[in-house]
Recover the amino acids of this structure.
């Protein structure tokens, strides 16, 4: 059987002095070329989990393997797209996209070619020489995606990449991401709190709940691609996930109430 | 509305500062102490021994508060600004003060005459004033007694300072930096106040230039004089007379016993700085100066002339200001 | 956006009558906004002198100070002094800036190095730079080099501290983005950390400039002989010429205002725009 792109085994994180949400021991796998979403309310530990996969956070226990190697730091076949794009404001779009290649000492001619390809892929070739402050939020996020894709990652990590955008832009970019993914086929771990977005994009959705964070349900979605956001199957799926989340929230509230009662005695 | 209120606040602040400036000019009644300025210099020796004895008893019932200064301009500013009643200082700063704020100070008496020496780097070939042409000569500061004396020397020999378009470069160098300035070849010679000339000679950094020293000695230029503010002298005639008397007594004692001056000076210096100056150097410099309450006729007028030719003067100085007016 | 473009862009449209007049009015308003306090001080100063409430040797009249300034320029070649001082200032400042920023960047990434070095520099910052002048004279000689060294050192300390401070404010996301893209070591310092701290450094540059001024003036007062504003300032003090002192202060003040308006404000505006600090919000 083919080795998975990513293997998370009992990774966990408790509260520390940083503001990362706690996460109970969690395990899952991502196959090569698979699109996986981690969905849940804020505080469910989904970003913590992504940070550990990216190699930017260290799990307290458990292991994470990417492409068969244990994760010890960032890079190494994994690229990441942040919520606020995190473009370097002093560089043009072109130089932002080129940055990772320079860091890896890719020869100049190859750099230029790969940057052009990446920009074309996200439809930003016309603004290559603009600075981030001259771009709309959506364009910034595209540039950020190009900056990650130019590294030709086998695993693409995306941390709520569309959550700062308006609804319309978000829909357009979701569509775009589906197209780009179908063209390039990296394995994707996509963190979001938007259920429809997750259902629309993913092969697999892990639903997480908070207090403390853990995976409460996993959905396999085999609706054929390219998909349409208005697909009734997607809406139904969303409904189901929402119900599940509501139940979790009620449970959590009940648990808290019980704790309060007990401690009041 | 808001801008208008802040504007009003700004105007009020500026006016308040101005009012403080104006109010600071009051005063003029009888004093309840005598605030006396001086330097910890060997040329202020009589003041130092005087403060130890005569002045310590007070002046006409008023206690004496001493304030030590490091340079003439600050002491003059303190006198003119009303934070000092009387002071020992060099004649250079006094002459310049009279040229800019005439009649504010009153010359009471002489204290020490002499107390400056020309020394040169060995091998500089400087023996006479004429040899200074094309050379660089250090003085402690612009407009001080040594600077003015140097300009008199140059004028007499038909030379001029470089800032007047002449051939002798006059470089102000603070006393403690004199040794380095000579060693690093920044200057060729120094007209130094006592005891720095003797000190440089003692350390083997410079050699004396007796030819020029003799020429300076002819003019009997004071090293230290005693002044009071006109305001204080008028409002406190008894204390002023007592100050003149105490100064005369101290000067007389300094004249009789030079080693007492050297001892007192080193005691006082070590109280303030924890250091002492070599006794031999001190005595050598004390031999080259004369404690006297007299001010040689013409000496002050010469300094006025020097201030004028060097462009330091702020205006004419009344002849009456050039001699002691103790009463 | 509109605040940044406020003072220069009105000139393009001159077709409609009244537009030019309005533009001229705007320029006049702008000029007034920037100069009313100066005018206020001048008026009060002039009033005090004119009424004779304060002795002229304590506060010379504005006119007298201006005429002294004229004399200084014509007879004492104050322009040479100004030129010499500005040259030393720019050189010393530049050396201090480069040294301070380099030290900050190279050691600020390591807790161990920063914890050792930063308190020493912060402590030295409390020592007036001029206290090191005797040492500088022994090491570099009684000459302009010692003055330059003091000026550079006076700039170096606040610049190093500003660099440390700026490095602590780099957005963690940017650092993570850089690391995830493979940036390491010197490459990271050069291409990420340095550019990221530039906006904060601009503030440091201004502070360094004022520290450079202070150190330079204090040093020029002692190490005389060469041309320089400090020497003229000291001359005025030594001969008790308050008008000369005030004239030199006026020159320093004008240079300060001009560099602030023509250089630092523009630099700040450019950096803020380029680094997206205006556009992003």
């Amino acid at each position: 059987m083919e080795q998975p792109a990513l293997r998370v085994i009992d990774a966990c994180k408790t509260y520390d002095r940083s503001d990362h949400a706690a996460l109970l021991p969690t395990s899952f796998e991502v196959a090569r070329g698979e699109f996986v979403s981690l969905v849940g309310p804020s505080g469910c530990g989904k970003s913590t989990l992504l940070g550990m996969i990216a190699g930017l956070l260290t799990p307290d226990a458990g292991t994470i393997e990417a492409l068969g190697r244990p994760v010890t730091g960032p890079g190494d076949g994994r690229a990441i797209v942040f919520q606020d794009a995190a473009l370097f404001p002093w560089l043009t779009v072109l130089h932002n996209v080129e940055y990772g290649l320079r860091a890896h000492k890719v020869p100049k001619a190859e750099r230029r070619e790969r940057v052009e390809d990446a920009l074309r892929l996200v439809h930003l070739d016309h603004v290559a020489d603009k600075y981030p402050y001259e771009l709309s939020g959506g364009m910034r996020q595209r540039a950020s995606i190009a900056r990650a894709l130019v590294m030709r990652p086998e695993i693409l990590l995306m941390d709520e990449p569309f959550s700062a955008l308006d609804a319309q832009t978000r829909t357009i970019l979701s569509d775009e991401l589906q197209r780009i993914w179908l063209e390039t086929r990296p394995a994707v771990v996509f963190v979001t709190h938007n259920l429809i977005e997750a259902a629309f994009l993913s092969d697999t959705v892990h639903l997480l709940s908070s207090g403390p964070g853990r995976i409460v349900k996993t959905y396999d979605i085999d609706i054929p691609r390219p998909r349409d956001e208005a697909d009734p199957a997607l809406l139904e799926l969303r409904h189901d996930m929402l119900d599940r989340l509501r139940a979790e929230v009620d449970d959590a509230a009940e648990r808290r109430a019980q704790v309060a009662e007990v401690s009041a005695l | 509305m808001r801008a208008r209120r802040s504007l009003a606040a700004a105007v009020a602040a500026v006016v308040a500062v101005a009012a403080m400036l104006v109010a600071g000019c009051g005063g003029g009644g009888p004093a309840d102490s005598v605030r006396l300025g001086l330097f910890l210099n060997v040329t202020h020796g009589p003041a130092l021994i005087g403060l130890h004895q005569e002045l310590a008893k007070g002046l006409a019932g008023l206690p004496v508060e001493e304030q030590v200064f490091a340079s003439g301009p600050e002491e003059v500013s303190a006198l003119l600004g009303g934070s000092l009643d009387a002071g020992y200082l060099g004649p250079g700063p006094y002459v310049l003060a009279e040229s800019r704020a005439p009649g504010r100070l009153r010359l009471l008496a002489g204290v020490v005459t002499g107390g400056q020496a020309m020394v040169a780097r060995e091998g500089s070939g400087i023996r006479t004033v004429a040899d200074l042409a094309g050379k660089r000569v250090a003085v402690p500061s612009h407009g001080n007694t040594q600077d003015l004396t140097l300009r008199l020397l140059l004028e007499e020999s038909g030379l001029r300072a470089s800032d007047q378009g002449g051939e002798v470069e006059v470089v102000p160098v603070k006393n403690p930096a004199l040794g380095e300035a000579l060693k690093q070849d920044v200057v060729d010679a120094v007209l130094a106040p006592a005891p720095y000339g003797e000190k440089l000679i003692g350390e083997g950094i410079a050699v004396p230039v007796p030819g020029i020293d003799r020429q300076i000695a002819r003019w009997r230029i004071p090293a230290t004089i005693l002044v009071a503010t006109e305001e204080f002298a008028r409002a406190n005639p008894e204390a002023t007379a007592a100050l003149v008397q105490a100064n005369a007594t101290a000067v007389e004692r300094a004249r009789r016993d030079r080693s007492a001056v050297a001892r007192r000076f080193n005691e006082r210096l070590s109280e303030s700085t924890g250091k002492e100056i070599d006794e031999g150097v001190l005595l050598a410099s004390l031999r080259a100066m004369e404690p006297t309450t007299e001010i040689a006729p013409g000496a002050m007028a010469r300094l006025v002339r020097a201030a004028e030719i060097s462009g330091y003067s702020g205006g004419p100085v009344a002849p009456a200001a050039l001699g002691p007016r103790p009463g | 956006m509109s605040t940044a473009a406020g003072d220069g862009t009105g000139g393009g449209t001159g077709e409609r009558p009244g537009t030019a007049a309005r533009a001229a009015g705007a320029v006049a308003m702008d000029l007034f906004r920037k100069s009313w306090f100066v005018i206020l001080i001048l008026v009060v100063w002039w009033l005090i002198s004119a009424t004779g409430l304060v002795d002229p040797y304590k506060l010379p009249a504005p006119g007298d100070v201006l005429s002294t300034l004229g004399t200084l320029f014509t007879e004492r070649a104050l322009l040479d002094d100004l030129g010499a001082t500005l040259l030393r200032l720019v050189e010393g400042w530049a050396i201090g800036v480069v040294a301070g920023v380099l030290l900050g960047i190279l050691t600020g990434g390591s807790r161990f190095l920063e914890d050792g070095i930063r308190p020493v520099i912060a402590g030295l910052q409390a020592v007036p730079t001029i206290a090191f002048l005797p040492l500088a004279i022994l090491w570099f000689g009684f000459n302009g080099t010692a003055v330059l060294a003091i000026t550079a050192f006076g700039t170096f300390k606040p610049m190093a501290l500003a660099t440390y401070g700026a490095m602590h404010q780099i957005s963690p996301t940017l650092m993570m983005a850089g690391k995830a893209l493979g940036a390491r070591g010197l490459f990271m310092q050069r291409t990420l950390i340095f550019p990221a701290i530039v906006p904060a450094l601009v503030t440091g540059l201004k502070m360094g400039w004022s520290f450079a001024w202070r150190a330079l003036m204090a040093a020029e007062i002692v190490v005389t002989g060469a041309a320089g504003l400090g020497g003229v300032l000291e001359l005025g003090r030594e001969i008790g010429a308050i008008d000369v002192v005030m004239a030199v202060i006026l020159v320093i003040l004008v240079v300060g205002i001009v560099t602030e308006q023509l250089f630092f404000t523009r630099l700040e505006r450019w950096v803020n725009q380029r680094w997206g600090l205006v556009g992003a919000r």
